[in-house]
Design a protein that fits this description.
Chain lengths: 640, 73
């Protein structure tokens, strides 16, 4: 096997000049392979397809992931794609990707990780499993479904005359993409393959080019400019080695050129074109029965992370090479929502942004609210939003948020460099519940410097929060490439299952994204048992459909708090005078005793306020976060 | 005459700032608790918490917000 050396070159200063008519002779197909989600289109295909088309290339996109989902059953597909641990989805395509070099021909993965895989198989598709156990089912998918799917896909006449195939790869899309590239190269040796996406960022891209013969070129970093420039070089017959952001083989060397600075003017990007997804999904019967209106339309209003530019959260491996925050203008986003809703007859939008642009809270969301649109928008946000900001989001149609809560301990949050306190996280959960915004969040643990007390306190807190939306779970953090902890984990090794997927010729230290670790200063698993148990209890409570209540009625000098969080212990608290006003003063946001003292006009001393804080906290009506206090009950009545 | 003119003539009231809760801050309702400087303040806080709780579950649907029942005359 070729084992080229890596060479880094300076970038060529200018793009090559190409006769625009010549581009018409270079048909391009952009592919998204399993296990890309099947329930919405790929923004990578939608955007890059439009960009390449805009440069004059005949281009078509291919959501080939949909065909595989239909072959194996959508429920089974979703289950496999959602199982990122142990790379089982990658393993399914490994033999077809690497042939005799694939490391686990006979399926040892199924024995070695049986305890973690045994719950696979019950996909809720109504009997798709055919009575087979999970092992038989995985082996059947690997040995029968995968080769049949790839054979049929590669034999499609659509490939005739195609000059370039581009693969976008994020998370578990590598092996399936390598497998299709291998077949296409076998049938069309002259066909050029270009790979890109998050799996090719940093040193991963050059390593995949070095180690996988089916990968001709990799675009490392953002492809908006690099891809059309690379295509022009192919058209012109010019060497691609010096093109910014491109990696390729030149003789016995792998040559890589640093990416150009990331695109700053996101308004220059076209709106993604998802036509092929809707046609294909419709033809394959994968659209919701109610029609396309149920399909979330992916959109990108920003790139990078404005918080990460200043303080990189220690566990975050997103934005490998492009932390720089950039956002589309509010007008552009308003126009894009309108355009995409009209095109695809959907009112649901899914932001792929890492973090919402706070400027939108003044310039975009109020416009959407005032316009009377009825969108359902998902956004990732920072957790320290105020009540007014959550209200603004809700009024604009933001119905789901992912705020990166991660912990309910301010001490642990500081270890993560999250830039939010526990009381702010809880306050976000409160106002999201109040305004009807669904929150996707989880609890992370395993950070160096934690103490057992951090987790004893969190475990004691959780039963008081059951009236708020629970996390999806609590789990130990993963070490991701590009995260600060990646560099602080000297004993890290690629996650064990990579060796069941990729041949030993792949240098996983360069190619892997997930790592196992032994972080110095981390606590043993037993320190988290109580947190895990209380989290499960919270999740269980909500899974029954019961919504525990903690609400208060308020008038100056009078507060009544109804506590219906725990069956059999329900009751109403009545407070009058300054105590009532104190509780109301702690509702909007976490507040210090001195600030409450001023708000109440001195009717209670600071010492009395501290005493009252503790009395409220002892009853689970308030949470104390170092110097701050926050009421836990939500105002009664309709949101306002 | 515009509609707003008519409204003004009907109410005949000058606009004034209304403060909600002006009496509550310690004057009347606040009398249950000791105010700053009251030596019995600590005890008062505890006392009010001690008697604040009334057990009993409230039916979630007992006061529906969005249900208006119209009966035939």
């Amino acid at each position: 096997m070729i084992s080229p050396a890596l060479r880094i070159t300076p970038a060529a200063p200018d793009p090559v000049e190409v006769d625009p008519a010549a581009r018409a002779g270079w048909p391009v197909v952009l592919v998204s392979m399993p296990f890309m989600d099947i329930d919405w289109p790929s923004i990578q295909l939608g955007l890059l397809g439009e960009i390449v088309r805009g440069h004059g290339f005949p281009v078509r996109t291919l959501h080939a992931n949909l065909d595989f989902a239909v072959r194996i059953g959508a429920g089974w597909y979703r289950q496999l794609g959602g199982r990122k641990a142990r790379l089982v989805a990658e393993w399914l395509f490994s033999v077809e990707a690497f042939g005799p070099e694939a490391p686990d021909q006979d399926g040892r993965l199924l024995d070695d990780f049986a305890a973690e895989l045994a719950d696979l198989g019950d996909d809720g598709d109504g009997g798709d499993s055919g009575g087979r156990d999970w092992r038989e089912r995985l082996l059947h998918t690997r040995r029968v479904d995968v080769p049949a799917y790839l054979d049929r896909l590669a034999a499609d006449p659509m490939w005739d005359g195609v000059k370039v195939v581009g693969f976008t790869s994020t998370f578990q899309q590598n092996a399936a993409s390598f497998a299709l590239a291998r077949r296409l190269k076998r049938d069309h040796p002259e066909m050029v393959t270009i790979f890109g996406g998050a799996n090719f960022d940093g040193e991963m891209g050059p390593e995949w080019v070095r180690a996988v013969p089916g990968v001709d070129y990799a675009v490392v970093g953002e492809a908006d400019t690099a891809l059309p420039r690379l295509l022009d070089r192919l058209v012109a017959g010019a060497p691609a080695a010096a093109e910014p952001g491109v990696t390729c083989r030149v003789g016995d060397e792998v040559v890589t050129t640093a990416p150009a600075p990331p695109l700053r003017q996101l308004d220059d990007l076209p709106a993604p074109d998802y036509t092929e997804y809707f046609e294909r999904a419709g033809r394959l019967g994968l659209l919701p029965r109610t029609g396309p209106g149920g399909v979330p339309i992916p959109f990108e209003s920003s790139r990078g992370c404005w918080w990460g530019e200043k303080h990189h959260c220690t566990f975050c491996g997103l934005n490998g090479s492009t932390m720089l925050f950039r956002a589309k203008s509010p007008q552009r986003m308003a126009d894009e929502f309108v355009t995409q809703a009209r095109r695809y007859h959907s009112f649901r939008f899914h932001g792929v942004d890492n973090i919402v642009d706070m400027g939108y809270l003044k310039d975009l969301f109020p416009v959407l609210a005032a316009g009377g649109v009825t969108y359902q928008i998902f956004y990732e946000v920072k957790a320290n939003l105020t009540r007014a900001q959550v209200r603004t989001l809700a009024q604009a149609g933001v119905t789901q948020i992912q705020p990166g809560i991660e912990s309910l301990s301010s001490r642990v949050l500081r270890l993560m460099r999250k830039g939010a306190r526990a009381a702010q996280n809880i306050n976000l959960l409160r106002w999201a519940a109040y305004y009807g915004v669904e929150v996707g969040w989880n609890l992370l643990y395993g950070f160096p410097g934690e103490t057992e007390q951090d987790y004893a306190e969190q475990a004691a807190l959780l039963p008081h929060l059951v009236h708020l939306q629970p996390p999806t779970g609590a789990g130990r953090l993963w070490i991701e490439r590009f995260s600060p902890l990646f560099g602080q984990s000297p004993s890290r090794t690629p996650e064990a299952s990579y060796r069941y997927v990729y041949p030993p010729t792949v240098d996983l230290a360069k190619a892997a994204y997930f790592f196992e670790y032994d972080l110095p200063g981390a606590l043993p698993q037993s320190a988290y048992s109580a947190l895990v148990k209380e989290t499960a209890a919270w999740v269980d409570t909500w899974s029954t459909g019961r919504r525990p209540a903690l609400t208060y009625w308020s008038s100056p000098g009078l507060v009544q708090i109804y506590d219906g969080r725990h069956p059999g212990a329900e009751g109403t608290y009545t407070f009058e005078g300054p105590l009532a006003d104190l509780y109301a003063a702690c509702s909007d946001r976490p507040i210090a005793a001195t600030a409450v003292h001023e708000r109440l006009g001195g009717s209670l001393t600071v010492a009395q306020i501290h005493e009252a804080f503790h009395e409220f906290a002892d009853r689970g009506l308030m949470v104390l976060d170092e110097s701050l206090a926050l009421a836990l009950a939500l105002p009664a009545g309709p949101p306002r | 005459m515009t509609m707003s003119d008519a409204t003004k003539r009907t109410t005949g009231r000058r606009s004034t700032a209304v403060l909600l809760g002006g009496l509550a801050a310690g004057a009347v309702l606040g009398a249950a608790l000791g105010v700053a400087g009251d030596t019995a303040g600590d005890t008062s806080v505890k006392d009010q918490f001690r008697s604040a709780f009334t057990p009993g579950a409230v039916e979630a649907e007992s006061l529906p917000m969005n249900r208006i029942v119209v009966t035939e005359p």
